[in-house]
Design a protein that fits this description.
The chain is mostly helical and about 240 residues long. About 45% of the residues lie in helices and about 0% in strands. The termini are far apart.
Length: about 240
């Protein structure tokens, strides 16, 4: 009876085959739904990345076309993208025709001789003469030659100081630093500020207070002051 009851109880409440099968089927369905959603998200992300790459390439291509607009063909001379041996011009030639040339704006330099009325001296401001000469303007174009990038040069110039071990070390010796630290520790941990005095200096001005046994009317005993051994001449064998 116990064996049959144990088998029935295990199959119904502990290891139910039909409940486990239903649970596994629900997990498989859920996994399939999640897999489909992830696949759709991956495809959407891939399409978006492709669209961004195409837009970036198209923008770069238009910028290069504006930058190289001088390669456009003229009525007399054909450009490098419009070869006479080709049946139709290159797509770059068509893009050059549609795009506008890139204009390099130069910074306007104010003439030092263009004075205005408010620049003239008044009674409140004395007349001053400028002795510094104006420096020539620095061109924005990169000079031809094996020169480094401007950003890299500025980064190296204004980088933080990294001193060596000899420069970063203190001038004072480690022994003096240890003494200073020990003095600070002693000053921080002491209980009172009274200076320690030796025994001879501390009791120099104090009056001696004798004990009750030695300050009585019967006087002081000689034992311990004049001698440390009792002397009894009556018990001597010989006279010494």
């Amino acid at each position: 009876i116990q064996k049959r009851w144990r088998g029935y109880y295990v199959r119904k409440y502990i290891h139910n085959y039909y409940a486990l099968k239903k649970y596994l089927e629900a997990i498989s369905v859920n996994n399939e739904i999640v897999r489909n959603e992830l696949q759709e998200y991956a495809e959407m992300k891939e399409n978006e990345d492709k669209r961004k790459d195409l837009e970036k390439k198209e923008k770069e291509k238009k910028y290069q076309a504006r930058k190289m607009h001088y390669l456009l063909s003229t009525e007399q001379i054909a450009g490098i993208y419009n070869s006479p041996f080709r049946k139709s011009p290159d797509p770059m030639e068509l893009l050059l025709r549609k795009s506008k040339p890139l204009i390099h704006r130069r910074q306007q330099i104010k003439s030092p001789f263009a004075y205005e009325l408010h620049d003239w001296p008044t009674c409140r401001r004395p007349l001053t003469f400028s002795t510094a000469q104006l420096l020539p303007p620095i061109g924005r174009q990169k000079p031809q030659g094996p020169f480094r990038d401007t950003a890299e040069v500025l980064r190296q110039r204004y980088k933080p100081l990294e001193p060596t071990l000899r420069v970063a070390a203190s001038i004072n010796s480690p022994l003096e630093k240890a003494r200073e630290e020990m003095k600070k520790e002693e000053w921080r941990n002491r209980i009172h500020d009274n200076e320690f005095l030796p025994f001879s200096l501390y009791h120099k001005n104090e009056k001696y207070d004798p004990s009750i046994r030695r300050s009585g009317k019967y006087g002081q005993e000689t034992y311990g002051i004049k001698h440390f051994r009792e002397v009894q001449p009556k018990k001597w064998v010989t006279d010494k």
